[in-house]
What does this fold into?
Amino acid sequence: MSIRLYSYWRSSAAYRVRIALNVKGLEFETVPVSLAPGESEHRKDAYRAINPQMLVPFLEDGDVAIGQSMAILEYLEEAYTEVTLLPDQQPLRSQVRVFCNMVACDIHPLLNLRVLNYIKTEFDVVPTADWYSHWIHEGFKAAEILCSDGPFVFGDKVTLADAFLVPQMYNARRFKVPLEDYPKLVAAVENCNEMPAFRSAAPEQQPDAVG
Ligand SMILES: N[C@@H](CCC(=O)N[C@@H](CS)C(=O)NCC(=O)O)C(=O)O
It folds into this structure.
């Protein structure tokens, strides 16, 4: 049985799943789905038949075929228990989920391609860098308070929180959001990126990476 991940190199939601697969030491096949303007493979019938929501990531593993990065990550936690990314004990287990949801529900959706495109086409407004940095700062201010003194977001073990933070910070850097107010988050990302599992999940390392 082999794991297949429908992914786009710059998708931060797919990046989360790539990190988790690598940290867990699971082999997987990457199926690139281009979100690039002019290609938009994710909106074509072939991909819609796989994922009706027309988003990446999407994971297939035997009979399991699921979208939504958090659902995928929870599935991997339940199916592959040798290396875990959710702490066993409460309240830490819930704190990790809080952190993940802050990124997944309250930062990432506001910066997504289809949201930005809708604002442009329906309201004739081009979201500026300020729109991007506003929502990053809103989320990162709280995330910095929740973050431990390291080396990772919640202490000395990598958790799903790190798998959510690293891609969001990659995007923040891509859009030149100043990060000096978030020393703990920046340090956690640096520590994660020392690990081969994180480095090989990075956008530039993907088979569909451009330029
Ligand atoms: N909540 C979803 C978000 C998935 C998502 O928005 N993926 C983006 C790439 S990061 C996408 O496919 N965007 C295509 C679009 O907006 O049209 C998840 O966590 O998987």
The radius of gyration is 17 Å. The chain is about 50% helix and 10% strand.
